Amino acid sequence: MIHPKLTCEFLNFKLNTPLVLASGIIGTSATLMSRAAENGAGMVTAKSCSLQSRPGHPNPVALDWGHGLINAIGLSNPGAAEEVNLLMATRAKLQPLGVPLIASIFGGTIAEFVQVAQIISRAHPDVIEVNISCPNVSDEFGTPFSGTPESAATVTQAVKQVVTCPITVKLSPNVPSIARIAAAVKEAGADAITAINTMPGMLFDVVSGQPILSNKVGGISGAALKPIALRCVYEISKAVSIPIIGTGGVSSGQDAAEMMMAGATVVGVGSAVYYRGVSALQQIWEELKCLYPML
User: Fold this and answer.
1) Is the pLDDT assigned to residue 7 strictly greater than 90?
2) Is 254 part of a structural domain of the chain?
3) CA–CA separation, 227 and 28 (whole Å)
4) Residue 207 lies in domain
5) Is residue 266 part of a domain?
6) What are phi and psi of 268, to 5 degrees?
7) Phi and psi at residue 178, to the nearest 5°
8) What is the pLDDT of residues 226-242, one digit of tens each?
9) Cβ atoms of 144 and 132 closer than 8 Å
10) Is residue 3 situated within a structural domain?
11) Share above pLDDT 70 across residues of the chain, in percent, rounded to a whole number
12) Number of domains forming the structure of the chain
């Protein structure tokens, strides 16, 4: 039987637990992120930010459809300059707790990624997560940067050159070979990989005949995403030797154990906070320890 290694180490950080608050859940205020840290998060990730502020999509933007969540919030955020203030306030609350902070960034061009990384660096986050799932607006078809090894590597190298802290690159599941993309970003300088982002999907209202989300397409997270995430993390772990934040559908200690068995170094938790409250991380950690009391 393969047992997970209940490690509480990630890069050069010694964590209180191997659980990481995923980006986009409650990473919108210093108070909420510190609450996550007080309730079992070994690291916390702020919501992804862009160069300019974004209002996001109009409602409806999210739905619990019985097998997980689907959302198209639209990456709403206050913009990089304002995000610096949020990150600095959050670091002040997290440092006494011994919990590292991950800032998350995205952009529509390579130049935007570089600018956002430079601005966010002023807040001295412990790690920067490079979310490459957004469309490349310079590409003829708007292909996400995560879509090919070449574009993923280009973003990674550009960001790595302008920051001093470690970076983790967040990969998408809807690609032909996530292992090839993981190898490319590792070669380009990524210190770690976050896998995975949500999976695109749609739902319809059968009465109106219209898509439920105003954006029509949204990202699937929660239980329905877990088998996809496990497969992706497993393939990445066989392709690269850098740490992996395994994220996608982790709602229990058993889910976390499976993610570690697949090859995750630490485990991201997102939708579980919606279902189980902010104490979900602490509950998952206790369940994980009960599964493997000998470790």
Assistant:
1) no
2) yes
3) 28
4) 9-291
5) yes
6) -85, 140
7) -70, -25
8) 999 999 999 999 999 99
9) yes
10) no
11) 94
12) 1
Task: Select from 118, 138, 104, 134 the least CA-distant residue to 219.
Answer: 134
Residues written for the chain: 295
How far apart CA 210 and CA 182 sit, in angstroms, is 37
- DSSP for 215-280, please give it: TS-EEEESGGGHHHHHHHHHHHHHH--S-EEEESS--SHHHHHHHHHHT-SEEEE-HHHHHH-TTH
Instruction: Quote the tokens at residue 2.
Output: 């393969």
Read off the tokens for 250: 């982790």
CATH code, domain with 219? 3.20.20.70
Active site residues: 134
Exposed, middle or buried: residue 210 (CB in 10 Å: 0-12, 13-18, 19+)? exposed
Sequence-distant (≥ 6) Cβ neighbours of residue 288 within 8 angstroms: 6, 18, 253, 256, 257
Alpha-carbon distance of 119 to 129, in angstroms, equals: 14
Separation CA 146–CA 172 (nearest Å): 6
